[in-house]
Structures are given as structure tokens and as C-alpha cells.
Amino acid sequence: MDGLDPLFNAPARLQIAALLAKVTDMEFAKLRELVGVSDSVLSKHLAALADAQHVRLRKAAMGGRQRTWASLTRDGRRALDAHVAALRAIVAHLPAAAE
Amino acid sequence: MNPIEARAALDGIDDAQRALALKATYCPPWRHAAFGAIMGALVLGPGLGSLWQGLLLVTAMLGVVLLVADDRRRYGLFVNGYRKGRTLPVTLALLGTMLATMFGEIHAREAGLSLATKFGIAGIAFAVAVAASVVWSRVYRRELMNGGA
Fold it and tell me: A64: buried, middle or exposed (CB in 10 Å: 19+, 13-18, 0-12)?
């Protein structure tokens, strides 16, 4: 299907991108809380998204500790929008009863 | 991907954004008031001449930095007010009102109007900015809650 990005096939990865699409940036711990995954799983998903240039990661000190902040890049937003549009197109074929 | 998997993926997005709305969008009254005070200071500046304008501008910028830092510390995230989405009309309406009140301040200074008039215009800017901040937060929360992914 045109527009589907294999990177977003993992539900948690899609949720991370969808959350970052609604904010300027979000701290690692808040993302972990909202997506409901462990530190290591979130780290892997963020690394995969960052490798694809969909997410930008930066370290910043807060409260005397280094924290990781994530934001969606322009490419990431474009890929997410295309992916969501493709999902909607697929769902359009879903019978009303199944929804 | 079949339609049921696609529906589940879209529902996952909606669930995550609803969780964001429920856990990280509460904005305390003092935060709205602080934003209003910053906007009021920015509007008041042009009415008082260059020295006060400079002081108020620096104070307002410092206030913005402190608010952003507090948002990041308290919520673990930051949302730029100029974001696209359903909040943009609120932001543009606020921007238009702030520019209009700034021109009002400039006119008040050039016409030699009283200090009370200048503070009155800034007071209007403060009230509008507080109201816009409240409305903006509600619209943002509603956008997250309604989903539509």
C-alpha cells in the first residue's frame, strides 16, 4: 500500500511518532509512561526512528541530571501523515460492523 | 496489512493521544496568568518609551524562558503555541489582538495620553491573553481527546 512506512508497523513506534507529532518535544520518561513500554524497548524504538531521520534526539541537563528529549523531524511528520492516510484508506474498506 | 490491523493501529494512536490529554495537559490558573502578564508587559512597553520598552521586553523574554523551563520540568514536554492544528486560529486571533493593542499603546504615547490609559490598554491585553491561554488549552485537549487518527 502506497504511503505505509514499514518502520511504523510496530504499534509502539507508531504511537511514539503520533505523540511527538502533538508536541514540540517530549522527555524520555514521559514517552515511556505514555506508551507503556520499558526503558530498553523505548530506547530501541527511538534509535530506529532516529536512524531513519524520523526523530531527533538531544541530551539536556535538567534537575542536575542528563535527560533525553525526542522530537519529530519534518521527514518524520511527513512519513507519519502518509502512513496514517494509508491506514485510513485501508480502514475505508472495513465493513461498519467490524469497526 | 488488512483493514482490522489498520483500524487497530489507528485506535492505538488515538489511545496514546488521549493518554497525553489526560496526563499532561492540565494547566494551572497561575500559568495562564503568567502568560497574560508576559503579553501585557510586551504590549505596555511601546506606550512607555524606549527605556521602559527595553526593560519590559527583557523581563518578558526572561518570563518566556522561565515558563518554557517550568513546562518542561513539570510535564516532561513542551508544546509551541504556534503549532499547526485546531489551536492555530486561537493563536492567530491572540496575535492579532496583541498587535492591535500595541498599536494602541504607540498611539497613546504619540498622542500624549495618560498613564492610566496605557495601563488600561495593557490590562485589556492581559485579559485577552489569559482568556486565549485558557481557550487554547481547552482546544488542544479536545484535539487530543477527539483523536480522529
Answer: exposed
Q: Which residues make Cβ contacts (< 8 Å) with residue B118, sequence separation at least 6?
A: B44, B47, B48, B105, B108, B109
The domain locations on chain B are: 3-146
* Domains recognised in chain A with CATH numbers: 6-90 (1.10.10.10)
Residues 6+ apart with CB under 8 A from A12: A35, A37, A41, A42, A45
Report pLDDT for B149: 58
Q: Which residues of A touch B7 (CB under 8 A)?
A: 91, 94, 98-99
Whether this model's pTM surpasses 0.80: yes
Across the interface, whether the CB atoms of A30 and B24 are under 8 A apart is answered: yes
Report the alpha-carbon distance of residue A35 to residue B147 in Å, rounded.
16
Contact A91 B13 (CB under 8 A): no
Q: State the complex-level ipTM.
A: 0.87
Q: Residue A87: pLDDT band by 50, 70, 90 thresholds?
A: very high
Q: Does B4 touch chain A (CB under 8 A)?
A: yes
Q: Indicate the pLDDT class of residue B146, thresholds 50, 70 and 90.
A: confident
pLDDT tens readout for residues A33-52: 999 999 999 999 999 999 99
